[in-house]
Structure formats: structure tokens, C-alpha cells
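User: Sorry, folds how?
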Amino acid sequence: MDSTVAADQSSAGLNSFAQLIIGNFYVQVAAMVLGAIVAIFIIAMAYWVFRDMKSRTNNRFAWLLAVLAVLVLNVLGLLFYLLLRPQKTLEEDELEEMERRLLEEEGLDFSDATVECRKCHKDVSESHHFCPHCGTETHPHCAECGAAVRKNWEHCPQCGAKLSEKKKAKDKK
């Protein structure tokens, strides 16, 4: 019986201590301030995620899903977002596309186009400078400075020398 009385007294002591802390005006103000700071932090995270996601995709559903993940899961949602978000922004994708188009217009297409090796007649990627099958050089060179040139170029990009068909043909032999 003494143990139940002691347990009742200790729980009563804890209850009165909890009531004292909860009933304290300063503790209540501190809890409200802390809650406001946490709420502002969560809203700031959600806003940052929204702006970042908007710069990475035009899909409004993805925007909503990312913001909801942060609002519901807080920091864990932010970590998930950082792991799963698109790698590039729309601006980076657009710049890469413009650069690719510019290179294609200038005849500098570095795609997987193939050319036929003049010695073994096998297909070789245009970006390779030597045939991987027989070792023959696949691109012509400037007769003046030896820089690699493309078939459709009129002048060497290194020294500016005029590239005649004769000089390019000489290089092919």
C-alpha cells in the first residue's frame, strides 16, 4: 500500500510541475515564438522548393507534389526533393539545345554520325579521329599547320589558311 501512495504522490508531483510549466506565461510565449519560427522555416522551405521546381519543369502537378512533400514531411520532404528533382533547370536545357543547334549549323555536329573508313570501309563515329578497326586517320588536316579540319570548311580554324580540295585530298591519301 505504501508503494501505491508513493506512486500517487510522485505522479501528483509531476502533474503539478507540468501544470506549473504549462501555466507559466513566459513558457507559453517561448513556445509560441518557437512555433512561429518553425512555421516560418517550413513555409520558407516550401517557397524555395516551389521556385526551384518552377525553374526545372513546366509541370504544375510536379510543383504541387514537391511543395506538399515539404509541407507534410518538412526536412525529410526537402531531402526527398533534393534527391529526386530534375538535374538541370529549364534555362540550362535551353542553353544546351541552342549550343547544339549552333554547332550543327557550323558543321560541328558531335553526335554519333558515322563516316566510312577509306581504308577498311567500316563505319566509324565521326567524332573519332582514327578508325578503331585499322588505325587509319579519319579526318583531313590542314596542309599548313596540321590541325584537324572538316570537309565542309573553307579555312583552317587554327591558322586561317585556305583549304583547297587538293590539300584535303592529299591528306586523305
About this structure: Residues 166-173 have pLDDT under 50 and may be disordered. Helices lie at 2-23, 25-56, 60-73, 75-84, 90-105, 165-172. Residues 56 and 87 are 8 Å apart (CA to CA).
